[in-house]
Structures are given as C-alpha cells and as structure tokens.
Amino acid sequence: MLTADKVKEMLASINGQVNASDLKNDSNLTDQGIESLDTFDFFLQVEEDFGVTVSDDKMEDLNTVNKIVEYVNSES
C-alpha cells in the first residue's frame, strides 16, 4: 500500500530541492516545486515498485499527493 508520506519521500528524493515535510497532500505538485520531469521519473519508479501502469494522460491528472495515493492503491 502506498501512503502519502511515501509519495512525499519519493518525490523529494527525485527532486532533490524539496523537503518531503513541506509537500502538502492537496496542493498541485507543480505549485510546490515538483517539475514535470520529476513527476515522470517518479511515476516510472511507482510503476516499478508497485506494479501499476500509469499512462501519460493519467500522469497529467495525478497532480496531487492524494490523487496519486488513491490511484496507485486502487490499481495495485
């Protein structure tokens, strides 16, 4: 099961400039300093770690921590 804290840790690790504790669950990732390349790398890691497939179109919709958690948990 993927949790909000795990998403934040993964995003912060990939981004390198954002602290996991600063990321908010309901705010748009782009507004929080997470760039599109970061999100792409993040979803590649999610697909590998959790065995789910995230299409390019779906990646655009999954723009908050909460949306990512809900989607991955519903697909895995």
Secondary-structure-derived class: mainly alpha
- What is the CATH T-level topology? Non-ribosomal Peptide Synthetase Peptidyl Carrier Protein, Chain A
Helix and strand pattern: HHHH
CATH architecture label name: Orthogonal Bundle
Helical run tally: 4
Largest sheet: none
Quote the average pLDDT. 94
Beta-strand percent range: under 5%
Instruction: Please give the radius of gyration in angstroms.
Output: 11 Å
Any idea what the shape is? globular
Say how many strands there are.
Answer: 0
Give the CATH class.
Mainly Alpha
Helix content: 55-70%
The CATH superfamily title: ACP-like
Question: First CA to last CA: what distance?
Answer: 8 Å
Descriptive tags:
76 residues, 4 helices, 0% strand, globular, Non-ribosomal Peptide Synthetase Peptidyl Carrier Protein, Chain A, mainly alpha
Put the structure in a nutshell:
The chain has four helices and no strands. The chain is mainly alpha-helical.
Could you walk me through the main structural features you see in this protein, from its secondary elements to its overall organization?
- With 76 residues, the chain is an all-alpha fold.
- The chain has one domain: Non-ribosomal Peptide Synthetase Peptidyl Carrier Protein, Chain A (Orthogonal Bundle), CATH 1.10.1200.10.
- The protein has 4 helices and no strands.
- Helix 1 (4-15) crosses helix 2 (36-50).
- The longest helix has 15 residues, at 36-50.
- The mean pLDDT is 94.
